[in-house]
Amino acid sequence: MSHTNLYVAVLLLIGALFMADHSMAAEPTEAASSVIEKAPVTCEVLPDEVFIDSFYHGAKLTITGKSDANDEIIIKISSPPTESSLKFMGKAAGLFWMKIGDMEFKPVSNVYLLYTTGEIQKITTPEERIRSLVGYDAIKAQVEITSSKGPVDKDRWFNEFIKFKEKDRVYGIHEGTVVKDGKGGFSATVDWPYQAPPGEYKVAVLAIRDGKVYAEASQKLFVKTSGMMTLLSDLAFKNPAIYGVIAIVIAMLAGLGVGIVFKRGGGH
What we know:
Layout: H1 3-26, H2 30-37, E1 44-46, E2 49-52, E3 59-66, E4 72-78, E5 82-92, E6 96-108, E7 112-116, H3 120-123, H4 126-132, H5 136-142, E8 144-147, H6 154-167, E9 171-174, E10 179-180, E11 185-192, E12 199-209, E13 212-225, H7 228-238, H8 240-267
Parallel strand pairs: 2-13, 7-9
Antiparallel strand pairs: 1-3, 3-11, 4-7, 4-12, 5-6, 6-8, 10-11, 12-13
Helix pairs in contact: 4-5, 7-8
């Protein structure tokens, strides 16, 4: 064999050994692969679509998942941050109660619902609540409140904002409502409020260990109009004149129907 052929053979052999070694190093063991793929917490929402029709009055959701059996769990349902406006009343000239100004809150979610395995103050640190936006104090820390009447008392008006949202059932903190099965599984039942507007919501499951969120899983929840509600909603935004006419006709027909019922009742 010539020297040239010998050199080529040696180079080919070295290259083959290098590729084999690199291939073996790149393939993880079965045990290592299973650790990488294993999620520390999971989240499933059923149903993940809620349809608003003529008979809609809210919905019932079931949220389940798995985590370490020793973890505390917080489930947070929220809509994307936006601006929220409120009108406030006062006495004009010291005599009559009427709207005297507008107030804006930003950034805030239209819907903010929490469900937990325990008391938030006990299972999380103050710093973690601020970082993960858990609890009303965390919202207050980032919200900006402005008024058409000038500077405002932030504590007072933030509390009024929360009362207003809780009355509509679109804000709420429900401690101790997430149930664990002792084997890592957990579940919560959510009475979805009919006051929540159509849109896309985020359902986030936070796994808590030593007062801090160490893992998170999330799933989207879609609330949609359907049937006649979709038609009316589209008309209201795209052709308000026709929507107004239809609304008047429906009101007249409803009034006529009530009148007929009372007349029949009076005849007896």
